[in-house]
Amino acid sequence: MTAPAGASTRSWRQLDPQRGTALADARLQLHHAAQLATALGISFLPAQADDSHTNLEWIDGVDALTSKPTGSPAIRLAARPHPFAILVLDAKANALATYLLDGRTIDDAARWIRGQLAEYGLDGSRYTLKRHYEIPSHAVDTGAAFRATSPEPLQQLADWYANGAAVLGRLAAATPNASPVRCWPHHFDIATLLTVADGKTMNVGMEPGDAYWPEPYFYASVYPTPSPDAPRDALACHRSGQGLGVHGQLEGLPAGHLDHRDADAVAQLQVVVPVDEDLLELEGDVPGDDLDDLPRLVAQAASPARVHPDSWWHDFNRSDRSGRNVA
Predict the structure, then answer these.
(1) Cis peptide before 216 (omega within 30 of 0)
(2) Residues 315 and 210 in one domain
(3) Cα 147 to Cα 78, 159, 227, 279, distances in angstroms
(4) pTM for the predicted model, two decimal places
(5) What is the pLDDT averaged over residues 104-126?
(6) Are 82 and 177 members of one domain?
């Protein structure tokens, strides 16, 4: 997949969308490894009702999903896809220590982490892997060792997260009332929440795959959910008061459906969902003259976007439950 023009100041990474369906095992291993980083927030930060203490930030400099900082001096834990490892970072995201995961178990990594926490003045006994949510199962969760003998799938996942963070970061920077881009350890997506008006939000993100769609995909979901019969044109929706003018609940475009031959195919999330550019002017406070400077969400996808089949997924991604309006 070639770079979308102006997606971000970060370099766009070449992708092979057709390999998306072959990333499932690597994705599940990385999802479980990321819980080791999320556990720092669960163990040491005050619990937030929106779960924001658990979220992770993609940091390009270390190519890893990183926890929130804690301690004095502050440290972070990070899960790096390739080379597959857990990192201890300082407040400026410099790597202080590295633990390669290939051939090691979750318990091995947790023991190492507790020792590292003690070295930096934290009580390692407080570090817990208990969590209040479930993630998809994998053999590593019952004692099997992580396996990274084939690095290509993990590198592909790193590239998907890096590109997702870049495109979503541009969208968030250019859109009023957008939340910071964060990875949520429950579903493992990286996303930003756009607050369009009071009580009206759009969650836009990249999911590396799930039980229904095994390949990575970009998505958009809205709250409140419009009626299935609501008009899709933003101007008509605004006049009728029927919501945001997108498909009820969620539309997503999987990796294999992206036209990676077209440099503009994914430019600034143009492949995600048909949303009228008028939306931000009508529902928000953006002057009409500034619309050309906003990332466009309007485009024809290489193949039609699909509605996600899991109704619970839609419910979870409602803005009043996902906590995605918080840094």
Answers:
(1) no
(2) yes
(3) 18, 19, 46, 46
(4) 0.77
(5) 98
(6) no
